[in-house]
Design brief:
By secondary structure, this protein is an alpha/beta fold. The chain has 13 helices and 14 strands.
Length: about 325
């Protein structure tokens, strides 16, 4: 449909507490929001530019502005795949188009795809910090069934043991964000086993993970920074057991659906993750999450205040998105 208009804006969401990973700490989520309007409705999408992938608020906005004419002239999601690379900018536009199509047809994205809507359990992240801070966060959230621990530097054994002791009933997964060398990682294996860690995410840097071997450890290895879109699969097969699908990496739901299908056909497990953003960024990811092995969509739980009509959480159980939010 022609005569659509595209607008772009940035939003600033302060966090409840500093959010640290192995490569840095943030105190707010700065996101880019896309709105596409037609005579029949309004669609929205949100993305989080990530410096690790060479993105900034300014560069992402420029990429989005570059497809304004395409959108105005009725360009499709498949055409968008050929106009923008995988990444945050394409994600926001793609998700806004999915939302707009739902408004124009009167059918939810979930129904169009035959995806059941039901609550899912999300991981809750214990950010990288000093041992006592991580112990306290784990203790405060010990009631949650799944905790994701950010590691990837010195004193990781002390951090992991502190979290495990503070939340003895929680299932644990670990995310290094590329923070270890192979020798660092191997030294931690026994500690992971003792703490009943079930999954370790991106232990080595992308492109330097050739020595990893799927199925080698008593826990699963998950590719995050090493897996962006379907083109990534040929480089990670045999190294990892699971992939972390994030819409800001795939460049939207359209590509993510294809990636998920091809990953499952290749025998890989599925984790659905997120950058730190509002419920508007989480809602499209829930389309992928209904049957995922691991769901990590806790972004809104980390914000001081979420977007209006945000997803409802009961503990770590995520509700389904309101049509007023997305889809």
């Amino acid at each position: 449909m022609t005569n659509r208009s595209l607008s772009v804006a940035t939003e600033h969401y302060p966090l409840q507490r500093a959010f640290g990973i192995s490569r840095g700490t943030k105190t707010a989520a700065d996101v880019v929001c896309v709105t596409i309007k037609s005579a029949m409705g309004i669609g929205r999408g949100e993305c989080v530019p990530y410096a690790r992938y060479g993105e900034s608020l300014e560069s992402v906005r420029e990429q989005i502005d570059s497809v304004a004419t395409l959108i105005h002239e009725g360009g499709s999601r498949n055409e968008l795949l050929n106009r923008l690379p995988a990444g945050a900018a394409r994600n926001a536009v793609d998700c806004a188009l999915w939302d707009l199509e739902a408004k124009e047809t009167g059918q939810t994205v979930f129904d169009r795809l035959g995806v059941p809507q039901h609550p899912v359990i999300t991981a809750f992240t214990v950010p990288y910090s000093d041992v006592e801070d991580m112990r306290q966060v784990a203790s405060d959230n010990a009631h949650r069934p799944l905790l994701k621990i950010k590691l990837g530097s010195s004193n990781d054994i002390d951090r992991l043991e502190a979290v495990a002791a503070a939340a003895p009933e929680a299932k644990l997964i670990v995310d290094a964000n590329e923070g270890w060398s192979l020798s660092d990682f191997e030294k931690l294996v026994d500690t992971f086993v003792a703490a009943n860690v079930t999954l370790v995410e991106q232990p080595l840097a992308a492109g330097q993970d050739g020595d990893l071997q799927a199925g080698r450890y008593p826990f699963q290895l998950c590719a995050d920074e090493s897996c962006h879109d379907r083109k990534s699969l040929e480089h990670i097969l045999g190294k990892y057991d699971v992939i972390n699908i994030k819409l800001d990496k795939t460049g939207g739901l359209t590509e993510a659906l294809v990636l998920k299908t091809e990953a499952l056909e290749a025998g890989l497990g599925i984790m659905v993750g997120c950058m730190v953003g509002s419920s508007l960024a989480m809602a499209p990811a829930l389309v992928l999450a209904h049957d995922a092995d691991v769901v990590d969509l806790d972004g809104p739980l980390l914000l001081a205040d979420d977007i209006a009509h945000g997803i409802t959480f009961e503990g770590s159980s995520m509700g389904t998105p309101s049509p007023k939010l997305w889809g």
